[in-house]
Design a protein that fits this description.
heterodimer; A: mainly alpha; 12 helices; 0% strand; globular; B: 0% strand
């Protein structure tokens, strides 16, 4: 079963002063308000956040519904936007794999992969014994997921009091927070070049293909950064 | 709950969870010291950076109504605050929301 000590240690990690809980919560307040404006009821809004738990995907779904897109179109659009979760999982789960832990923990907890939880885990995993990292991760995931659900709930009911300017303010919080966290993570040449190239190539590839821009920017930028880092080490 | 919305939510969650689950299944044979892991680490950071840049420069949703100028001012000023506050994450995050709310009135 889940080790309670490490679970709660992970859960409490979002209570630190520089935790992403504030930014995450505010963004889901914006999502809650947006979903209400699109005609979702409270159950659908909460259900959406609980099951999807990925901001860009929720936004794409909402916009696709608005223009009357088919279910297949919604699936493909969301898949393209959220395909970033694949390299995020591959670059995180090997740090947590331990043969004494049951596999269901990994399959269950992959639902918590999101930028905020991923960044918290990346900056804390070294301080946790490898055997218990998955329990720590589940704690982080439950905390950030709960924050998202509460944010959606608040946003849904507060939407009548939020004007467009405040919604814009809430919407910029998350990218700014993530940008600062990414800049803060630039401690090795590989990560530094990865972040810089991703920031440059993402928008450039948008002109070639909006759907593929994130994946192409990440693939090309990350691969170049990898080789630069390897050459530097050699 | 209307059927179409529920189906859209289910389809969205399926599209999202598939990437997560495939990532975990692929992770099973990868050692954290391997070159493949380092490559995926670079891909993850670069993809996230691309996503952030796209969210700011080509946003979807309410942020698309904010002018380019206001977004650029907010980003540059918040990065400045981030560095002068000794890499504190909270100050630039809070200031970004306040600045965007105010600037979107005027720019």
């Amino acid at each position: 079963m889940i080790n309670k000590e490490f679970f709660f240690k992970g859960f409490k990690s979002i209570l630190t002063p520089d935790s992403p809980a504030l930014a995450l919560g505010c963004c889901f307040i914006a999502i809650g308000a947006l979903l209400k404006n699109l005609g979702f009821n409270i159950q659908e809004s909460i259900f959406s956040t609980m099951l999807t738990y990925a901001l860009p995907g929720s936004l794409v779904m909402a916009e696709s519904l608005l223009v009357g897109a088919s279910l297949l179109n919604i699936f493909l659009a969301v898949w393209f936007v959220n395909a970033r979760l694949y390299p995020m999982a591959v670059s995180l789960f090997p740090l947590m794999m331990h043969k004494s832990q049951p596999k269901w923990k990994y399959y269950f907890s992959c639902h918590f992969i999101a930028v905020s939880a991923w960044l918290i885990m990346k900056s804390n995993y070294k301080s946790i014994e490898k055997k218990y990292r998955i329990d720590f991760w589940i704690g982080i995931g439950c905390a950030t997921w709960t924050t998202a659900v509460i944010g959606t709930f608040i946003g849904f009911y507060a939407s009548d009091y939020l004007d467009k300017n405040i919604m814009m303010g809430l919407a910029i919080l998350n990218p700014i927070y993530f940008l600062c966290m990414m800049v803060g993570a630039m401690k090795t040449i590989q990560i530094t070049v990865s972040v810089i190239l991703g920031l440059i190539l993402g928008p450039i590839f948008y002109f070639l293909s909006p759907e593929w821009s994130i994946l192409l920017g990440g693939l090309v930028g990350g691969t170049i950064a990898y080789f630069i880092g390897e050459l530097n080490v050699n | 709950m209307s059927t179409s919305v529920v189906l859209a939510i289910l389809v969205t969650s399926l599209a999202t969870f598939s990437s997560r689950l495939l990532g975990v299944i692929s992770s099973e044979g990868i050692k954290e010291t391997s070159k493949l892991f380092r490559w995926f680490n670079c891909l993850a950071y670069s993809t996230l950076a691309a996503l952030i840049a796209r969210t700011i420069i080509f946003p979807v949703g309410v942020l698309s109504d904010a002018s380019y100028l206001s977004r650029i001012i907010v980003v540059l000023f918040c990065l400045f605050i981030f560095f002068i506050s000794k890499r504190n994450f909270v100050y630039p995050t809070v200031i970004s929301a306040i600045m965007m709310t105010v600037l979107s009135n005027y720019l």
